């Protein structure tokens, strides 16, 4: 097989261990770098922020990413799912992604900066006498950009997409990436690194099987949409003429989509009828004891955050760390699952919609999704099982707000880790990591691979896919790195001096 400069041969791709000579034979330039983070999103940012605060210099870290700023993918997904800059997120005041100390929280900053003392009072009253305070998306993006500039994020970013991670024959790893076309002398470059951090986010958008099949068969990507993909044309059409929309899902994104639909009725005179379809319809509170109950009403399971707060740093975190195998999976399923935030405004909108007849609920398994001949509508046939009658719902649009996460094997580099590096899957089919987020069975000599984010759900920590979870993972990984001789612990002295630098926005 002929090998062009900087290109990779099948033989190289198929081999699990590479040598320096292998890459030299392919004309691939190799750069030494102790720490490489793959992804460049919020997970990479949390990791690098922690390392910089711990004293690691910019020349020891590289982040391989195709993003211009760490929040870019997040902003894209949030905006599609109708959380625009002025809207509030789900996490709380102290989930300060730009500040590992969590103080001052977003509420205090908003109260001070916008002269709105009410939000500071809200955090004192939440969740008993007020809804949980949650920051506006724009505030989070601004603070993250500020911190990125402070830690000199751009100096560490190498534009590109990672293609492969491989063990090196003499210990450590190679990370092979493709720089953007025309930006480098070769089509591929490689880093030779002791520590790799995988933070690649979601492997891809997952569609419900029946909707996927409908879209493919009828080549209809306009009327059946996923909440995480751009779908503003749906709302625009509904403002132009009376439409029926069928919404599937009962999580936070479904809540936000419903809010958008009802806001458009309230503020722009849309005449939309909403059919909200539930697959599972909790009959009453979930959980089996007084200390572990989740209220449910009208098909929704209510919980402030996607897991109970103690999952991030209390007794639930400790308990989960002690569990193995099926017990761990079952516990994560019990404390998580599909749920949404119990916001008063959302409840009021749905109650009003129900009373006025523009918000209808359906329940059951979907049997088929078919186009209605001679109309531009789509018919969803539901039920016929579990004792529910078969019901047909005709709608102009279907919005799938059920979930985002595809199989981890859909991600090429994660697949590489499974196939070539020795990594395995955990009890929930995601990447198997230790309590300190080190990928199990992937060590190579002194080299270590770590992973954080949604692909590690099923491990010893539940809130992996959250700002706080990404920061927690970063701190645990940092502890491991310190034990391996990379960086210093963030003790009381460093922590205090670094917080002051953060507060004054001065360089590290
Ligand atoms: C709509 C939405 C709202 C959310 N709201 C909240 C909230 O309010 N509070 C909260 O705490 N959490 C929230 N989360 C969860 C979580 O905090 C975010 O998803 C966060 O962005 C996860 O960070 P990440 O680094 O894992 O993934 P991302 O931020 O998505 O970054 C991963 C990046 O890796 C890149 N990548 C993948 N493969 C490669 C490769 N081979 N080479 C180079 N780059 C690659 C991807 O393109 C992506 O840009 C929300 C998530 C979503 C989707």
Structure in words:
The protein is an alpha/beta fold. The protein has two domains: 10-75 and 142-204 and 407-504, FAD/NAD(P)-binding domain, CATH 3.50.50; 209-283 and 339-400, FAD/NAD(P)-binding domain (3-Layer(bba) Sandwich). The protein is 35% helix and 19% strand. The protein contains 18 helices and 22 strands. Helix 5 runs antiparallel to helix 6 and helix 11 (252-268) crosses helix 15. The protein is globular and about 70 Å long.
According to DSSP, the number of beta strands is 22
Number of domains: 2
Give the CA-based shape.
Answer: globular
Structural class, by secondary structure, is alpha/beta
Beta content comes to: 15-25%
Looking across the biggest beta sheet, what order are the strands in?
Answer: 1-6-7-8-2
Distance between the termini: 50 Å
Q: How many strands, what sense, and barrel or not for the largest sheet?
A: 5 strands, mixed
The CATH architecture assignment of the largest domain turns out to be: 3-Layer(bba) Sandwich
Mean pLDDT: 95
Report Rg.
24 Å
Percent in helix: 25-40%
- What name does CATH use for the topology of the largest domain? FAD/NAD(P)-binding domain
Task: Provide the CATH top-level class of the largest domain.
Answer: Alpha Beta
Ligand inventory: flavin-adenine dinucleotide
Within CATH, the superfamily of the largest domain carries the name: FAD/NAD(P)-binding domain
**Number of helices in the DSSP assignment:** 18
Uncertain regions: pLDDT < 50 for 5+ in a row?
none
């Amino acid at each position: 097989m002929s090998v062009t400069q900087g290109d990779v041969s099948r033989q190289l791709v198929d081999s699990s261990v590479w040598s320096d000579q292998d890459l030299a034979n392919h004309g691939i330039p190799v750069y030494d770098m102790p720490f490489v983070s793959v992804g460049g999103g919020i997970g990479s940012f949390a990791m690098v922020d922690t390392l910089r605060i711990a004293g690691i210099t910019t020349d020891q870290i590289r982040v391989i990413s195709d993003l211009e700023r760490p929040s870019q993918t997040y902003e894209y997904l949030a905006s599609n799912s109708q959380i625009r800059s002025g809207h509030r997120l789900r996490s709380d005041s102290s989930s300060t992604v730009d500040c590992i100390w969590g103080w001052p929280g977003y509420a205090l900053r908003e109260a001070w900066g916008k002269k709105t003392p009410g939000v500071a009072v809200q955090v004192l009253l939440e969740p008993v006498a007020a809804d949980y305070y949650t920051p506006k998306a724009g505030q989070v993006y601004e603070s993250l950009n500020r911190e990125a500039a402070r830690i000199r994020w751009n100096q560490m970013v190498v534009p590109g997409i990672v293609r492969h991670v491989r063990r090196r024959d003499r210990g450590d790893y190679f990370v092979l990436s493709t720089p953007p076309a025309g930006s480098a002398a070769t089509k591929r470059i490689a880093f030779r690194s002791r520590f790799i951090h995988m933070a690649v986010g979601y492997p891809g958008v997952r569609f419900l099987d029946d909707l996927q099949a409908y879209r493919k068969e009828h080549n209809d990507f306009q009327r059946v949409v996923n909440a995480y993909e751009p779908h503003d044309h749906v709302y625009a059409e509904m403002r132009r003429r009376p439409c029926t929309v069928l919404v599937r899902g009962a999580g936070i994104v479904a809540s936000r989509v419903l809010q958008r639909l009802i806001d458009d009725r309230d503020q722009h005179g849309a005449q939309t009828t909403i059919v909200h379809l539930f697959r599972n319809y909790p009959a009453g509170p979930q959980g089996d004891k007084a200390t572990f109950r989740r209220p449910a009403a009208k098909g929704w399971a209510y919980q402030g955050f996607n897991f109970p707060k103690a999952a991030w740093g209390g007794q639930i975190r400790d308990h989960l760390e002690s569990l193995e195998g099926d017990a761990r999976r079952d516990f994560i399923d019990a404390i998580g699952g599909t749920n949404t935030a119990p916001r008063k405004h959302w409840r009021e909108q749905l109650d009003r919609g129900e009373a006025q007849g523009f918000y209808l609920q359906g329940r059951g398994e979907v049997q088929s999704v078919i186009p209605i001949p001679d109309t531009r509508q789509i018919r969803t046939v539901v039920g016929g099982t579990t004792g529910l009658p078969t019901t047909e719902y005709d709608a102009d649009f279907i919005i799938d707000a059920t979930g985002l996460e595809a199989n981890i094997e859909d991600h090429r580099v994660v697949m590489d880790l499974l196939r070539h590096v020795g990594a395995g899957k955990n009890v929930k089919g995601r990447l198997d990591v230790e309590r300190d987020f080190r990928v199990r069975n992937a060590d190579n000599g002194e080299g270590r691979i770590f992973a954080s984010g949604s692909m590690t759900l099923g491990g010893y920590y539940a809130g992996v896919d959250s700002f706080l979870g990404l920061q927690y993972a970063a701190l645990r990984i940092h502890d491991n790195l310190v034990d391996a001789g990379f960086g210093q612990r963030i003790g009381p002295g460093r922590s205090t001096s670094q917080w002051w630098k953060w507060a004054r926005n001065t360089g590290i």
